[in-house]
Amino acid sequence: MSHRSGRHFLQIPGPSPVPDRVLRAISAQTIDHRGPDFAEVGKKALQGMKSIFKTSQNVVIYPASGTGAWEAALVNVLSEGDHVLMYETGHFATLWKKMAAKLGLKAEFIEGDWRGGADPDAIETRLRADKAHEIKAVCVVHNETSTGSVSPIAEMRRALDAAGHPALLMVDSISGLGSIDFRFDEWGVDVCVSGSQKGLMLPPGLSFNAVSERAYDYSKTAGSRRSYWDWQEMVEINRGGYFPYTPATNLLFGLNEAIGLLHAEGLDNVFARHQRHAAATRAAVQQWGLENLCTRQGQESGVLTAVLMPEGHSADAFRAVALQHYDISLGSGLSKVADKVFRIGHLGDFNDLALAATLSGVELALRKAKVPHQPGGVEAALAMLENTQFGQTAAA
Amino acid sequence: MSHRSGRHFLQIPGPSPVPDRVLRAISAQTIDHRGPDFAEVGKKALQGMKSIFKTSQNVVIYPASGTGAWEAALVNVLSEGDHVLMYETGHFATLWKKMAAKLGLKAEFIEGDWRGGADPDAIETRLRADKAHEIKAVCVVHNETSTGSVSPIAEMRRALDAAGHPALLMVDSISGLGSIDFRFDEWGVDVCVSGSQKGLMLPPGLSFNAVSERAYDYSKTAGSRRSYWDWQEMVEINRGGYFPYTPATNLLFGLNEAIGLLHAEGLDNVFARHQRHAAATRAAVQQWGLENLCTRQGQESGVLTAVLMPEGHSADAFRAVALQHYDISLGSGLSKVADKVFRIGHLGDFNDLALAATLSGVELALRKAKVPHQPGGVEAALAMLENTQFGQTAAA
Amino acid sequence: MSHRSGRHFLQIPGPSPVPDRVLRAISAQTIDHRGPDFAEVGKKALQGMKSIFKTSQNVVIYPASGTGAWEAALVNVLSEGDHVLMYETGHFATLWKKMAAKLGLKAEFIEGDWRGGADPDAIETRLRADKAHEIKAVCVVHNETSTGSVSPIAEMRRALDAAGHPALLMVDSISGLGSIDFRFDEWGVDVCVSGSQKGLMLPPGLSFNAVSERAYDYSKTAGSRRSYWDWQEMVEINRGGYFPYTPATNLLFGLNEAIGLLHAEGLDNVFARHQRHAAATRAAVQQWGLENLCTRQGQESGVLTAVLMPEGHSADAFRAVALQHYDISLGSGLSKVADKVFRIGHLGDFNDLALAATLSGVELALRKAKVPHQPGGVEAALAMLENTQFGQTAAA
Amino acid sequence: MSHRSGRHFLQIPGPSPVPDRVLRAISAQTIDHRGPDFAEVGKKALQGMKSIFKTSQNVVIYPASGTGAWEAALVNVLSEGDHVLMYETGHFATLWKKMAAKLGLKAEFIEGDWRGGADPDAIETRLRADKAHEIKAVCVVHNETSTGSVSPIAEMRRALDAAGHPALLMVDSISGLGSIDFRFDEWGVDVCVSGSQKGLMLPPGLSFNAVSERAYDYSKTAGSRRSYWDWQEMVEINRGGYFPYTPATNLLFGLNEAIGLLHAEGLDNVFARHQRHAAATRAAVQQWGLENLCTRQGQESGVLTAVLMPEGHSADAFRAVALQHYDISLGSGLSKVADKVFRIGHLGDFNDLALAATLSGVELALRKAKVPHQPGGVEAALAMLENTQFGQTAAA
C-alpha cells in the first residue's frame, strides 16, 4: 500500500468531488427495485430532478453515462437521415455531432472558434434559410466542458421563435446543470441531456433527459430504432416510481441525497457560488498573465476555467507536475486544444478555501514546471473573495 | 423516520445483497477517470472480469443495466432484418426477443414451456433446416431468472457444430455469471451478456459483454447503427485501462472488490455453494408439498428457485405477507406466471444460516397467508445441509 | 484475503450487530468538539440517553467501556472502606464485586446460584439487620449477561424502602438498557451503569452513568479520589453540550442515530420484541431437551438465553463447531459455568428471520458436534413466532 | 437540513481530519471481541503501536480519551502523597498537574512562560537538589498542544542521568506521537501517554500508554488503587491479542488502518512533512507581522502553530469569523492565553494544498475581522513550499 498524506484535490471539470453524505447514501444496502420502498426512492428522484431542471414536464433517468443520454436524446426524436443543426462550441459539441453522424443523422455544424458559447444570431440566420424546415432539431451545448464557455440558451429559444422554425431545441447541460442557471420550461427547451458527476455531485453512472411534452409526443411516432433509451416505456412505468429495467439503485440513493443538499444550500446560492469562484479564478489567471480560453465576456463558465499555456509549454507536462507534486488533478485540453490548455474545475461540492487550495496548486505547479507567469494569482483571487460573504455572490 | 429492527432479507434473484466490503469500496471518493490511478482500476476490472467469464478474449464493461448489455450484444453484430434464433426459456428470453424485434431484427422463437432450459436438440434441428445459413445468431439464456432453469450452454455449442452452422452463439448469463459454472472460451460462446447485481454482488449499474475474437471481427463490418454500445472504440481504449466515455468509477471500485471476494472463496467453491443451497431449497419446497416451476432434472438453477403456488392462491398476496410480517423480499412471477409463482433467490453473498432464515421466512409466511402446505420445510433443508461442510458442496 | 460468503451472525450477548445506518453515522468526518456544531450533537446525545434511561435527572457519557462506567459509579459515591452490599447473580456481578474490592471498598456478597436474578427479600433482610446503616450502597445487576437472568429492580427499591435503609441503589444495566424495560426515575434507582454495545446497537467504546440528584449531591462530598470519572465537572460542562475532555465524537454520532432508531421502533415495541424472541428461543431449547441456565420463571432475560450443555459435552467445543461450520458466534460460559453453557444473544438490531437463522445455526451445530438433543427446535420456535405479528409481542 | 458546500477545514490541533480509508475501516461490522478473528486485530494493533512508539517494551490501549491515559500513567506507578516533578509548558501540563493533585499526589511545578518546551537544565538542577530521591517521577509534555512548543525529551533523559536520579520519566505525547519524532526506547522514557485523534488520524476514543519494563515492574507493587487503568491485567491478557474488558473494536479497526497509512508514507517522511508545513506556517505568520507564541528557536511544533493576536483584538472573535465565513475551525487559546492566541493545526492527514487552504482561511479571516496584519502570508508560505518536493522536508 502506498499512501500520500491528505486529501486529493479533484479539480477536473467533472467528476467533481462527491460529498461524504452522498457517498454514505450510496453505500446503503441495495433494495428490491420492484418493492414498495423503492417506489418512494424512484418518485423522489424523478420529482427531485424536475426541480433541478426546473420543469413540470418529463424527466428520464438512465443507468448510463452522459454519453448515453446524448444518444437517448437523439434516437428518441430523430430518424436516420434527419437533418440536425449543431454548433461547434468545443470538443463535446464535436463529439455529439460525431455521434449524430454515427447514428445516421445528417449533422450540420456551425463552426466555432472554441472561445465562447453558441451564437444565437448564427443559428437564427441558418434557420431562416431553412424555408423547408428540414432541420428537425437544433443542438447546443449549454456549458462546454472543454472550453469553459456557456451558451445563452434562452437566446436560442428566441432565435428559433424569431425564425419561426419548428425545430426542437436540444441542449446538453451535462456539466452545467446544478452549477449554473438552467430553466428548462422557462427557456423553452425541448430536450436537455445531463449527467450525475458534475453539479449533481454524484459518481458517474446516472444520466438524464428532460423532455418537453412536445418532444415526448414527437417521439411516439418519430425517432430511430431504440430499446434501452426509449422514453415511452420509461415515462409510463416511472409514474409508479418504478423503471422498466433495473435502475442503478444505489446511485439513486445518492441522487436523492445530493438533490437535498442542493436545495438545502438553495439553487440560487449554488449558482452564485459558482460565479463567484469562477470570477476569482479568472482574477488569478489574469494575474499570472495567462489567457482564458473563453474570450466572450459574459460567457465564461461558472463550472470550470480553461487556461491557455504560454507558447512552447506543454499543458500535459504541467498537469503531470501538479499531480505529482501537489496531488491535484487538473483537466486536460481535448482534441484541438490538446496539450495547449489545462482546465480548472471549480464546481460541485466546493468552497472558498478549496478554491484557494486549487489555485495554490496551480501556482506552485507553474513555478515547479517553470512555466512563465507572474506570481500573485492566489493573492488576487483572495482579494476578489475578500469582500464577499461565504455563500454570497461577488458584488460584480 | 420509521424503522424495522434487524436486517432486511433481500431474497429476490437479484439484486442480491451487497457485501459490506463492496459497499465500502463503492463509497471511496471518485477519482479522475483520465488519471494514472484510474488506469490501474480499469485494467484490474477488465482483467478480473475475464477471469470470471473464463476468457482470454474481450470483455466490455458498460455503465448500464443488463438490459443495455443485451442491446449491445445485438447491435454490434446484427443489422436490421437479420435473422436470429432465440429460445423461449421464460420471461427474460421473451424480453430479449422483444428487444430484438424492436431493434428491427427478425427474431424467431423456439417455444418453450418455461419449465426448463433451452433444448439443444431443437436448436440443432432448426439450424440443420437453415441450409442457407440465414440465421446469424443463436441467442440463449443461461440462467433464466424468471423460472429458475439453466440451459446447457456447452450443448448449444455442440448443437451448432453438429449442424455445421456458422451462426454466432450469444448467451445471456446476467443472473448466472459468478453463481453457476460458466466457461466462455471452453464452451465456445461468441457473446455473453451479464450484469453486476447478481452473482457479482454489486448494486445494479454495470453490465458486461464478453466477446469472442470472431464476434469482434464480425462487428467491424456488421451490426446496426450504434454509438454508446460500440465495441470497437471500447476495446481499443480499454487497452490502456481507460474508457471512451466516463465510466461508473465507484461501481468499478466495487467490482474489483467483489471479484477479489469471489476468488478468495474460489469460483468452484462459489458454484458448489449455490448448488448446495439450491438443493436444500428444493428439499424444503418438496416437504411443503409445493411444486418447483423447473421440472427438467439437472436444469434446476443454483441461483433461484421458482415455486408454484397452489391453485387459487395468489403468489403476490403471499409475497406481500412475507414482506410485511417477516421483512423478506421474494421475487414475483413474471408475465405468463404472474401471481402464480414466487421466486426464492439464494445467490450471491449468502450462507447456510441466511438460507435457513430465508426458508423460515417462506414457511412462516405460508402459514400466515394460509397457503396449504406441509410443515417441516426448514427442517428438511437443515437435514440436507447437515452432512456437508460449510463452503462444501452437497454429496449429491 | 480469505473470505466466507454471506453475513456473519454475531449472536453473542453483546456487542450486538450494529445497524448499517449507525455504522454510516459513525463514519462521518470528525468535528471540532469545542465548536458550535458539536454542542448540538452533545445535547442531543445527553437528552437522548435520558429518554432511554427514562430519567429527568443526570446522565453522564464516558469514552470508555462499561467496565469504566462501573468504576465511575463506585468512585463517585464510595470511599475506601465503605461497605457495599452486592448480589451474586453471576459472572458480571462477581467482577463488579472484585472491582469494588480492588478499589478498597468492603464489598459484601449475597451469594446466588447463578440461575436467577437478585432476590429482593434477601436484600431487605440484610438491610434490616444493618441497624447502623453502615451499608452505603446496594449494587445489583439488572440483566446478568453471564446467565440470562433479570433482577427485579423495582422490587429492590421496595426492599430498601421497606427496610427504611438510606443506602444508594446502584444498578448495572449494561446489557439490559435498550432491550428490556428499565425506568430509572420510576424505580428510584440512584446510579445506573450502561454501555453502548448491547441494546444501544453501537460498537463498544461509550458507557454511561445515570445519576439521581441524591447520588449527585452525595458525590460532591463523598467518593474516592478520581479525575477521569468525576461527575461534577462532567455534568457542569455537559450543560452546554460539551465535555471536560475530548469525547468519542464519532461514537456519539452513532449514538444519536441509534437512539433515533429505538424511538422510531418505539421502546415498548423494542421490549416486546426482545421478550418474544426470548420466548421463541426458550421453546427451541426446551424442544432440544436442553436446559436453560435461568430457572427462575419470569426472570428469563429478553437479551440472551444461556443454555446448559449435556453432561460430558464441552460448550466451547460446540461453539467452535458453530463458528467454523455455520459462521455464527455464540457466547461462552464464564468462570463458574465456563465450558458448561453457551449463550445465545437475541438482542439489539434483530428480527424474526435472524432468530430463525440463529436457532438453525445452533441446531445444525448440535448435530455436527454430536451433542445429544431432540431435533425440531427451530420448528418449535417458528411455531411460537407464528401467531404473532412482526413487531408485536407474543400473546403470552 | 442546512448545508454548506464543500469540505470543512478542521484545522484545530486535534482531532485532526480522519482519512476516508480510516473512516471506512471504522464502519466495518463489529466482531466478537472474544473470537479468533479479534485476536488478529488485537495483536496487530498492539504490535503496530509499538512500531509507532518505537518500543519493544509494553503498550497498553485504552477505550478512553487521552485524559484517561494520563490518569492511567499516574495511578499505575504513583501512590497518594508521592512527589512528582512537572514542568509548566502550557495548559495541558497544567491540567495534568491538576489531575495529579486531584489524585492525591504532591505535584511540584517548575514554572514556565508557555513560550517554549520544558527546560532540561531546570529539571536537572531540581533533581540534583533532591538528594533523598523523594521525587518519584518527572512528567513532561512532549508537544504542548496549547502553545505549539516541543520539549526535548532525549535531553530529559540526559538530565535524569546526569543528576543520577532514579525518578521515572513520564511523557505526554498525546499530540506529538505520529507527527513529530518520538523514540520511546532510545530516549529512555518510562511511560508515554498518547491519544488517537492527533497524529494517529483517528476519531477520539482510544488512548495509549507505552510502559518501560522498569515502570511495569514498579507498577506491580506501587501505584494507587485502580481497576480500569490497571496495566497488569491488560498486559497479561493482551499477550493473546485480547483485552480484559470490551475494547473499542471499531476504533481498533481504524487504528490498524491508520498505522498502515503511516508506515506506507514512512514515519520519517511523516515527520519531515510536519516540519515543512510548520515552517511554511511560520513564514506566513511572520509575513502577517504576527507573533508566534513559541519563541524558543528549534522548539516550534510541527503539529500546530499558536499565533498571538495583536493587542486589543479578540482571538475568539477572529476564530468565529473564520468559521462563519470560511468554514475553517481554528484552535482557541486556553486559560492563560484564552482569547489571546489562535492555534493553527497542521497535523495528521494533511498536504501542501490543504495548508494553502488553511493559511488562506486565516488570511481571509484576518481581513474580514479587520485584524491589523501585512498581506502576503499565503504567498510567503507558497514560496517556502516551492523549492521542496511534496513529501520531502524543507531544506532547513
Automatic annotation (TrEMBL), chains A, B, C, D:
It comes from the Bacteria. Its cofactor is pyridoxal 5'-phosphate. The keyword ATP-binding does not apply. Pfam families: Aminotran_5. One of its GO terms (molecular function) is transaminase activity. InterPro entries: Aminotrans_V_dom, PyrdxlP-dep_Trfase, PyrdxlP-dep_Trfase_major, PyrdxlP-dep_Trfase_small, SP_NH2Trfase/AEP_transaminase. PANTHER family: ALANINE--GLYOXYLATE AMINOTRANSFERASE, AMINOTRANSFERASE CLASS V. This is Aminotransferase class V-fold PLP-dependent enzyme. The lineage of its organism: Bacteria, Pseudomonadati, Pseudomonadota, Alphaproteobacteria, Rhodobacterales.
